[in-house]
Design a protein that fits this description.
Blueprint: H1 8-15, H2 19-26, H3 34-46, H4 53-60, E1 65-70, H5 76-91, E2 95-100, H6 105-117, E3 122-125, H7 138-142, E4 147-150, E5 160-164, H8 166-179, E6 185-189, H9 195-210, E7 220-222, H10 228-238, E8 247-250, H11 253-265, E9 275-277, H12 283-287, E10 294-295, H13 299-319, E11 329-332, E12 336-337
Parallel strand pairs: 1-2, 1-3, 3-4, 4-5, 5-11, 6-7, 6-8, 8-9
Antiparallel strand pairs: 10-12
């Protein structure tokens, strides 16, 4: 049998006082005696009384809860983002409600509605791979619920955004391979919709163009799920070609580790015969052998910055709900980390 949740009425009945007196005692109102306050707080602790946060939120029209919608949770980058969000929220007296889209647009829509119906004060989100646009977040905008997009964003949607320069990061990765002597470069890219995957592909092309290298369409592979197994399978295809690539830039570290695994099985030496660069600077890039060169993606700082922008907007709207809010797009620094794979 489920345990009964203690209410103010329960405490009032046991002490023989009014519900109003119990409420005031818990809030330290001056018109309640010290003896009554002590008795109320002692019994509340004994009965494990917890305020009904939903009722408080409805009364105050504020929950001090922010919603976070992420594409996947078993991912070093997103776990770092969550840590940054929760750390900043804790400093400011907010809690975070985490929801997962599994990179599915249909589930992402459901999570947006969940956040709306839960009456969160604002939402931080990274778009699912299936979401080319953020139109389904429009309900938040219609009800003046602040939104911050990060990493996978929709540049046309009016809200605050936090990202890195994915195009420049990809350019750095590709130019690093070229500077190491690679001339036949392959790219295992992300899906067609996410803006960051497009930008990483564009950065790859920029580096080839700068160094007068040909873009060979047969050396471009497109991931659907962006997994280690896709990196492995695509690498097997690329490394079975008559003219082998001598450098591969992958959209994420997970995909890059798949490439390393395939190359090792085919007795292709990394980095002598094949050089590989990933993207994200995840833990797996550090522990795989050979360790994976990569582009640093500051997950914790992205999360912290997104939370700061969101809470600033929440508090600005609370102070003056009529004034227009100016939106920012913050781009954080990224850089190349050279390891054993190059």
């Amino acid at each position: 049998m489920a345990q009964h949740r203690t209410t103010l009425k329960d405490i009032a009945e046991k002490l023989g006082i009014t519900v109003t007196s119990v409420s005031k005692a818990l809030k330290d109102y001056p018109d309640i005696s010290a003896e009554t306050k002590k008795a109320v707080k002692k019994l509340a602790k004994k009965l494990n009384y917890q305020p009904d946060s939903r009722a408080i939120a409805m009364k105050r029209n504020k929950s001090n809860i922010i919603g976070v919608i992420i594409p996947e949770i078993v991912h070093y980058f997103f776990s770092n983002v969550i840590q940054g969000i929760m750390s900043y929220c804790d400093q400011k007296g907010y809690q975070a409600l985490i929801a997962l889209s599994n990179n599915q647009k249909s589930l992402e829509k459901k999570q947006v509605n969940l956040m709306f119906n839960t009456r969160v004060d604002g939402v931080i989100a990274s778009l699912a791979n299936e979401s080319a646009k953020a139109k389904h977040f429009k309900i938040l905008k219609e009800y003046n619920i602040p939104l911050v997009l990060f990493d996978k964003i929709d540049e046309r949607f009016e809200c605050n955004k936090v990202k890195i320069d994915d195009r420049f990061g990809a350019f750095l990765a590709t130019e690093h391979l070229i500077n190491k002597g690679c001339k036949r470069l392959a790219h295992i890219r992300g899906p067609q919709h996410p803006l960051n995957a497009k930008e990483r592909y564009n950065g790859f092309c920029d580096a080839l163009k700068k160094h007068n290298l040909e873009l060979d369409p047969t050396l471009i592979k497109i991931c659907e799920k962006v997994t280690l197994s896709e990196g492995y399978d695509f690498a097997k295809e690329l490394l079975a070609m008559d003219a082998l690539p001598d450098g591969i830039f992958t959209v994420t570290d997970q995909v890059g580790v798949g490439v390393i695994k395939a190359a090792q099985e085919m007795d292709i030496n990394i980095p002598k015969q094949l050089k590989v660069v990933g993207f994200s600077d995840s833990q797996i890039a550090q522990v795989v052998k050979p360790s994976l060169s990569t582009i640093h993606q500051p997950g914790y700082e992205i999360g912290e910055t997104a939370a700061r922008l969101l809470i600033e907007e929440i508090e600005t709207r609370e102070a003056d709900s009529e004034s227009p809010v100016g939106f920012k797009q913050i781009t954080l620094d990224t850089y190349l980390i050279e390891r054993e794979s190059t």
